[in-house]
Amino acid sequence: MTIYEFARRIILEAGQNIKDKLKLELTIETKSNPNDLVTNMDKETEQFLADKINQTYPDHRIIGEEGHGSDIDTLEGVIWIIDPIDGTLNFVHQQQNFAISIGIFKDGEKYAGFVYDVMNNNLYHAIAGKGAYLNDRQLATLQSTELKRSIISMNPNWLTKDWTKDVYSPIVKDARSARSYGSAALDFVFVATGIIDSYITLRLHPWDFAGGMIIAEETGAIVSNQLGEKLHPLKSNSILVANPELHHEILNVYLMNYKDELENLHQGMFSSR
Ligand code: IPD
Ligand code: CA
Ligand code: CA
Ligand code: CA
């Protein structure tokens, strides 16, 4: 069994475990603020995946949102970057619209990405260089769109804060429409399937983007930070993902008007995870 086949098997098992336990009462704790939640299912799912990987591949390294690999800062070998539940607020409030995300890198090169929309039983997956799939269906190469004919995804919170509203409201205003899904991993794969044309956000951690980035790039999406720079798999960053024409338009016609502000922000915020 390849690493890819193994990953596919364990992400589906992890999703089934979540479904099996959905009716049980959750233990919910807060992390950095009252709206930053973590549940026992986030922790159990990360542990389940880590145990499976460690048993089969003891030399692989694991980074997860809920604590695994917090000391890892180099890219050699095989690294699994895991978000056990992306969209925890959706999981707690809606019991849907959340995903398990896994990105696998070999010596710093993309190897495979998985985003499992558990409740819809939709597995988005890709091996780098071999195309992206939704379940058994290969995803088409993205069509180009202009902003005025595009649906973008963005958290509306960015439109409520002092200077970020100046940066992002012109983009929302000029787009055909905007959406907010509450799961970064799903936002990436929604760009990959073309149901939205761009996802823009100011801060994601590696586990939020690792799986989705590998899948989206297989469909021709451009994934960068908001200065147009490539993402580092181990570092938090801002995000702009879109089909190539739209990525170019949002970056050059909109974000570059705030280049100095964005550069200052990136220097302060994104030196680590
Ligand atoms: C969050 C979701 C959300 C994004 C946040 C992430 P979590 O991940 O992806 O859509 O806006 O920045 O932290 O905490 O639910 O895994
Ligand atoms: Ca979280
Ligand atoms: Ca996340
Ligand atoms: Ca999470």
TrEMBL record:
List of residues binding Mg(2+): E65, D83, I85, D86, D208
GO molecular function: inositol monophosphate 1-phosphatase activity; metal ion binding
UniProt enzyme class: hydrolase
Entry keyword Hydrolase: yes
Record CDD domains: IMPase_like
Protein name: inositol-phosphate phosphatase
Biological-process GO terms, alphabetical: inositol metabolic process; phosphatidylinositol phosphate biosynthetic process; signal transduction
PANTHER family noted in UniProt: INOSITOL MONOPHOSPHATASE, INOSITOL-1-MONOPHOSPHATASE-RELATED
Reactions this protein catalyses: a myo-inositol phosphate + H2O = myo-inositol + phosphate
Domain of life: Bacteria
Keywords: Hydrolase, Magnesium, Metal-binding
